[in-house]
Amino acid sequence: MHQKSVAILVMLIFLVSSVWGGGFALYEFGGRASAMGGATVAQAVDPSTIFYNPAGLAFLKGTQFYGGTTLIFPKARYVGPEPYPWAGEVYDAESQVFTPIGVYISHKFNERLGVGIGITNPFGLGLKWSDDFPGKYFSKNSEIRSFYISPVVAYQISPHISLGGGLDIVTSQVILDRYLLVSMDPPNSDPGVEVGTVYMEGTSKLAVGFTASILARSERVGFGLSYRHRVINKFEDATADFTIYDQYQTLFVDNLGLFVDQKGSTEIPFPGILTVGMYFRVTPKLGIELDYNYYTWSIFQELVLDFENYRLDTKIEEDYRDSYTLRLGAHYELNDNLSLRAGYIRDKTPQPTYSVSPILPDNDRNNFSFGFGYSTGKLKIDAGYMFVNFGTRSTFENGIPVAEFNGSYASNASLIFFSFGYAIR
Amino acid sequence: MKKIILSTLLLAFMFWFGCELPTPTAEKIPVTPEQQQNLLLRKVVAIGNSLTAGYQSSGLVKSFQQHSYPYLIAQQMGIGWRFGMPWIEEPGIGSTQLTDPNYIAGPLRMTPAGPAVVDSTRADMVMGLLSNALFPRPYDNLAVPGADLNDVLTTKVSQDNPFFNIVLRNPNLGNFTMLEQALIQNPSLILLWIGNNDVLGAAVDGGDLTQITSQQDFRTRLEAILSTIREQSSAQIVMANIPYVTDIPYVNALDVIFVDFGALGQLPVVFDENFQPVDFNPDTAAVLYLPLKMTESGVSHVLLPFLTAYKTTGLGVPDSAFIADFLIQTGMDAAVAAVQAAQIVQGMIASGLNPSGIPIPENLTLTADEVQAIRDAVDGFNSIIGDLAQTYQVPVVDAKAMLQQLNSSGIDGYSGKYVLFDLANTAFSLDGVHPNNGGYAIIANMFIETINTAFGQAMGLNIPQINTAQFQGQYLAELQQYAGRASLPDAATRALEGVKYLFVKRNR
Known about the structure:
The complex is a heterodimer of chains A (425) and B (508).
Chain A: E1 12-13, H1 31-35, H2 49-52, E2 63-79, E3 90-92, E4 101-108, E5 113-120, E6 124-128, E7 141-158, E8 161-182, E9 193-203, E10 207-217, E11 221-228, E12 231-244, H3 246-255, E13 262-270, E14 273-281, E15 286-295, E16 302-307, E17 314-317, E18 323-333, E19 338-347, E20 365-376, E21 379-394, E22 396-397, E23 400-401, E24 408-423
Antiparallel strand pairs in A: 1-8, 2-3, 2-4, 2-24, 4-5, 5-7, 6-7, 7-8, 8-9, 8-10, 9-12, 10-11, 11-14, 12-13, 13-16, 14-15, 15-18, 16-17, 18-19, 19-20, 20-21, 21-24, 22-23
Chain B: H1 2-18, H2 33-41, E1 44-48, H3 50-53, E2 59-60, H4 62-65, H5 69-77, E3 93-94, E4 103-105, E5 108-111, E6 114-117, E7 120-122, H6 149-154, H7 162-168, H8 178-183, E8 189-193, H9 200-204, H10 215-232, E9 236-240, H11 249-252, E10 258-260, E11 266-268, E12 299-302, H12 306-313, H13 320-329, H14 334-350, E13 365-367, H15 368-391, E14 396-397, H16 399-408, H17 437-459, H18 474-481, H19 500-503
Parallel strand pairs in B: 1-8, 8-9, 9-14
Antiparallel strand pairs in B: 2-3, 4-7, 5-6, 10-11, 12-13
């Protein structure tokens, strides 16, 4: 009996959702600054000012090294909505630790001119869920890592005022590992069947951004303003490696030519940041600072994933909003060697409710930090701890689910940071 | 210094461990009644054999498929418009074997001369009858006529049963089995009626008990089906059990030609066109019935296809030697018996009977022992179905009881009699095995009742029953439609045995 050829048109649900957003932005690149909640733009005490306010370089002396890392221990928990599909089940993300670094060298050429170079990872976090997590079709494991190499220069235009600026040479790497769902009869077979996994990985081309800043300070008062321009990361040779279960090979791979390992491209922007801050030395021993960061997250309106096989192409509406962070920090000099610090951060999320996803469920945050510094001669050590509290966030607005994958999240993170400083000459 | 470091560490640990990750309260999704019902009705698929495919009268064609119970149920659920069926256009695909292998018979049709094959299709055009061959996903009614338990789990293509290729469309659809095609659609409800063909072949082939699947294999395979569904989907399942073969006209229709011969037991006898036993005693008040000549002894049922052969070739009609022997057995003098036997044979020929003396072959009769063996097998299968239904929490439609009731008291005015005995009200189709439009509606109602009972309350669901009366008179209409149509010449003698080829196991 002759077989009539059957042209099958299978509908795909290639689930996607918000990718790396506000929650991935880091600001902890110096042990002293971090312990003060990052409120440091108006101070310029150590070479981490290369990151926080390049103009501060003009106030540093000699040649200095300053470097360290932050151990980030994020935790996240998901609770499914009731009565279905996951009737109140609780899933915890797997334990991971991330170690962004901040390493700097500064050099003062003369009374007025200072230069420096820094290496930082201002966007770098990830979240890994278990294999039974129902949101694994959106993200089983996601991670982003950025490398900023920032050569900067600063010049004192008066004894109390300096200008600074420099370049950010940026490359970043993203990983997204997820399970694949296919629906034969959408929406009636929603959410479809699991046919395998896809592991996407990409490294962006070198991109260049810039910074520009001002620092004005006297004995008792400081004022800082710093601008870091946005960077667009272009991923042109990202790879998508598919692992399709044996029984689905014939249909999806052999017959339809879908889910074949292939290349793709996309763009992910890192937003511009404008920071202003005021510092007061209340007493000879006590100083406080209040900073404000403005993030231009609204440049992140959509994410387009462009694959070789156009049927896998995806466009995701991100619709981020600009956001801000308030930072309040204080230090108290116990004696000539020892200093105590503390800080508080109020962080407004750029992520609208319908973009909240398992990739990184973000929320407004309240963070508390504290730490100490010890210095003797040419050496100093700064260490501290920060508790980042995201609280809980659900994808429901007025009782109505608004995201693609709905539920409630709770997350927090513990950060331990330490830096070493050494005055080379 | 130490104090500072220690107290900083202490404070950090207090935060770290003191601030346990809270468990957010689960959001309540507002569920409309429609959404709640959709949990069950979102994606309904059917797995089974000819009974689930909607097979009637030894064939499958769109007008029959529209009365398949899954399609009827889908319509009652309000999802008929999106319930994918493998529509087979006219004249349909039947299982009656034609002598010319280049042609495939259509289903049986009711003609004034009785059930007959009136249409055929060239064998190489048969796949073209599938009008929605390009349906872009697996069908929702995945039932394949002729399938048994093993086929559900393993068969992807078939050399000799075209229905596998029509319904499963492999390899183009990806080489999935019936079960896999159901599961890849992420069903919410699976209608499952399978296992009939694991025993039916033995009955329609006259008691070839080797065709019965072993109890162990039946359990293993059914468990494999149910456990695979449970592992790979969240679908609810509704399953039907297996009726007794003695409750189908193919087996019991000719029970009317049996007469009690006392010490000799119940025997089928020579009968007239009205299925009345013929009295061969010319002069006395006592009746003389003549038993048919049979190969097997202890026969309790003569199968339906015998009817055609009896009429056309005189199969089983005794010759004079057999009659004389019988008369002697009843106490008659041998010389008288020979004379009377010769007279009876003359009378038979005069009345149009053919005293061929050819015994009814064993594949057209069931002995009491064979019936018991088949019944034991069905009882075993049904108890396995009951066991596994409990293990896997599957409500069961009692198809066995339904057929028994149909035979004893009837259902909704329908009877379990063969069409030749109850043209207007039979619930069976012309092949004597499969239900007709009315019969399938009764089955659909049983499934609906079971679904409503099992899930109705939880899902806020009450699927309406079908008005079965609307399907009355199917064969009265067919008689008119096919009044002028003669049976295909090479199908005439095989018409009623055609359905057998669907079940009797061949080398797949």
